[in-house]
Design goal:
The N and C termini lie far apart (81 Å). By secondary structure, the protein is mainly α. The chain contains three helices and no strands. It folds into two domains: 43 residues; 45 residues. 80% of the residues lie in helices and 0% in strands.
């Protein structure tokens, strides 16, 4: 969340401003102080957040699709191995009788 030092700094500046300024100056100084405080934080706009959320959604869908493909390919790799191993054990499935 917010750093405690930043919050303390904001609080002390608000107290300083309110103690020595008329209302218009207070508003002006508050805006400048808050703009400065927010500039030091790692914030993103709502638009940037929504874009990244959509990117993550598409990435999760793609990941699920790729996981399913890998699962199917692994199954295909195991099926021929099972056929080869059953032929090596002497199953009569492929041998001809005289």
């Amino acid at each position: 969340m917010l750093d405690k030092n930043v919050l303390n700094e904001i609080g002390s500046k608000v107290n300083e401003i309110l103690a020595s300024s008329p209302a218009r100056d207070v508003e002006k100084n508050m805006r400048a102080m808050l703009t400065s405080a927010f500039a030091r934080l790692d914030l993103v706009t709502r638009e940037e957040f929504d874009v990244q959320q959509e990117v993550i959604k598409r990435t999760r869908i793609k990941l699920a699709e790729l996981e399913e493909k890998v699962r199917k390919l692994e199954q295909q790799l195991q099926q021929p191995a099972e056929v080869v191993s059953s032929n090596e054990t002497g199953d009569a499935c492929c041998e001809t009788q005289p």
